[in-house]
Amino acid sequence: MQRTFVALGLSLALTLAGCGIGGIQDVKAKTEKLETKEQLEKALGKPTRISGGSALGFSAETYVYETSDGTATFVIVNGKITSRLYGTKESK
Predict the structure, then answer these.
(1) CATH number of the domain to which 46 belongs
(2) What does the pLDDT read at residue 20?
(3) Does some domain include residue 10?
(4) Contact of 74 with 55, CB cutoff 8 Å
(5) C-alpha angle 24/81/29, rounded to 5°?
(6) Quick check: 47 and 71 in contact, CB under 8 A?
(7) What is the pTM (predicted TM-score) of this model?
């Protein structure tokens, strides 16, 4: 019985470990041809942080994804990706 719980726990841990979006290079590869917010969310899931607002018929959002080795930021205007910024964490 105890071995069953240990095996289930290990399986769950391995499954969850595979759910991350990876590093900056992985994010670049997954998103370089994407054009819309919907495509971005489908490729990477929900972002770590979202900020934005709307005025005069324009909607602007900033999606920030924390990766294993940096940050990927996407600027979205009226549902379209208009800018991509990638930064890596500095080693100390």
Answers:
(1) 3.30.1450.10
(2) 76
(3) no
(4) no
(5) 30
(6) no
(7) 0.75
